[in-house]
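2024-03-11 09:14:02 INFO worker-7 job=invfold-0412 stage=load source=structure_tokens
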């Protein structure tokens, strides 16, 4: 479907950049526009990385849980599945005694914090 979300975010950023550069705009308003542009650009970066990250994360969590991961297509479905898998992982880690399985889940959780683009 056109325009894509990436195209819409890029267009919004371009329009904000034009407004930001307008010599007739008050300095305070220019600062607000600049901050809005930065937020739109950050959202664009996070959006582009979210789906591949979540798919990979779903596969990792499913492997930790020992369940099949059939895969998902859209971002909303993939994010929903990620929440389900992570809830199950939270239940699992609370029930585990100290040991290699618990350590593997802890290692995953620490690495996920560093890798999450959202």
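2024-03-11 09:14:09 INFO worker-7 stage=emit residues=118
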């Amino acid at each position: 479907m056109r325009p894509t979300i990436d195209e819409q975010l890029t267009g919004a950023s371009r329009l904000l950049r034009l407004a930001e550069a307008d010599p007739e705009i008050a300095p305070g308003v220019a600062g607000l526009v600049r901050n809005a542009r930065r937020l739109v650009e950050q959202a664009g970066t996070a959006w582009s990385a979210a789906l591949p990250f979540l798919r990979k994360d779903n596969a990792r969590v499913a492997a930790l849980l020992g369940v099949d991961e059939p895969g998902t297509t859209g971002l909303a479905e993939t994010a929903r599945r990620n929440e389900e898998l992570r809830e199950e992982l939270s239940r699992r880690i609370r029930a585990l005694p100290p040991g290699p399985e618990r350590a593997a889940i802890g290692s995953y959780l620490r690495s996920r914090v560093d890798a999450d683009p959202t």
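2024-03-11 09:14:09 INFO worker-7 stage=report msg="The chain has one domain: 5-115."
2024-03-11 09:14:10 INFO worker-7 job finished
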